[in-house]
Amino acid sequence: MNTETTEDKKPEAIVIGSSAGAVEALFSVLSGLPADYPIPIMVVVHLPPDKKSVIAELLQAKCSMDVHEAMDKEPIKAGTIYFAPPDYHILVEPGKFLSLSTEEPILFSRPAIDVLFETAADVYGAYLLGIILSG
How far apart are CA 92 and CA 86, in angstroms? Predict the structure, then answer.
């Protein structure tokens, strides 16, 4: 018999979806985390697909954690914040690694928050914390 309750479950990963208007809020939330934060964080920000994003670079300057754009087939590590690159969906794969996709936009967006949240939920289940920020 499993006696574990929802309160007993601690997140193993965090996913954040944000509109471009919520970047300031995103920075406020993430910049205070310590370098040894034990949970990986994956972020999708809806930005124009045809421009290079500097969000990861700007946050890295204010944040103790490692911050960078996700790379295809990259293993997910604690203490790291991964951003979806412009014009790529970011997916969490079984085995806890990231993959990038150029499949069709979802609701006119690539990267799409839905893709990250759905694939992360498939892998982490009840041990996933999801956050939505809007501008």
Answer: 17
Residue identified by tokens 């500097």 is 54
To 5 degrees, how large is the angle CA 6–CA 16–CA 93? 80
pLDDT tens digits, one per residue of 23-79? 889 999 999 999 999 999 999 998 777 777 888 888 888 899 999 999 999 999 999
Q: Model's pTM, two decimal places?
A: 0.90
Q: 76 with 94: CB under 8 angstroms? A: no
Q: For the sheet containing 80-83, what is the strand order?
A: 66-69, 80-83, 41-46, 13-19, 128-133
